[in-house]
Structures are given as C-alpha cells and as structure tokens.
Amino acid sequence: MVGLPPPPTTQAPRGASPDPPLDPGYPIDLDRIRAQIPRNLYWTTQAPTDDPETKRRRDQESSAWNVLYGRVLSGTASASQIRSYFDHRRQVSEDAIEFAELVLADYGSQLPDRDRGLLELAVQMHQTRLAELPRQESEAQSRKEEQDRRRAEWNGRPQP
Question: Which of 9, 27, 35, 84 is most exposed, with minimal Cβ within 10 Å?
Fold first, then answer.
C-alpha cells in the first residue's frame, strides 16, 4: 500500500539537521479522509505514526504475511492459506487504489507534482497487481497440488 510522501523539505548539508518542511500547511487532511474510508488498510498499515507499539505490530504483521508468502511460493501452504494470502493482497491493492484516488480527487490540484505523480503511479501499479493476482493464485494452487502429489509419492501413496 502506498503511503503519502512526506511534505517537501530543504536539503540540509551532510551531518546537519534538516530544515523544517517548506510547506507546514500540507494540503491533505488525513482526519477527513479517514472519516470517508475508516476501514481502509492504510490506517493500520501505512499511516504515519511515531507510536512504537503500532510500529511493532506492523512489523509483526508484515513478517507473518512474508512467512505465509514463502509457504505459498514453496507449495507448502494449504488451499485456504493460499486463498487467504491472495485475498489479503487483493485487499491491500484495492485499498491503496481507493486511498490514492480519494486523495487525488480531493487534493490533487493542490499537491506538488512529485506527490501527485507518485499517487498516480501507485494507482497504476496496484491496478496491474490486481490484474495479475488471479494467475498468481492459480499458479500457487498448482504448485500446492504438485507438492502434495510429490509428498504422497515419496511416502509411497499414489495421489489420485
């Protein structure tokens, strides 16, 4: 999921602390957007935070999805785990698109070109990912079936 880029800052010399943001009134009202899409994954996975507990939870959740992805790739995930993984990936992309399109619709003309371009790119990338998910899920199910067949063969039980 795409997060909002930070407001632009001036470039500080190496070793010096960065200057404050050039635009302290960055045009996006995250509270307003949150009220419009409160269940969007952006709020639990990407929204800016300094809370160490939130960061720890995000890291744990990301790690758990990574472990499951490894199982999906290796063919050792169950059929329901494969569905769960791809349902999650679908939701991440759909929510990223929803968030980015809402920000662009409400604030696009007020955003710096760089930020607007990053949000537009995020929409395109997530649309591409969504288009690829059915094929990837089918391939994952095939890997699982092949792994199951090989395991049964190894154990001396032919798979029907």
Answer: 35
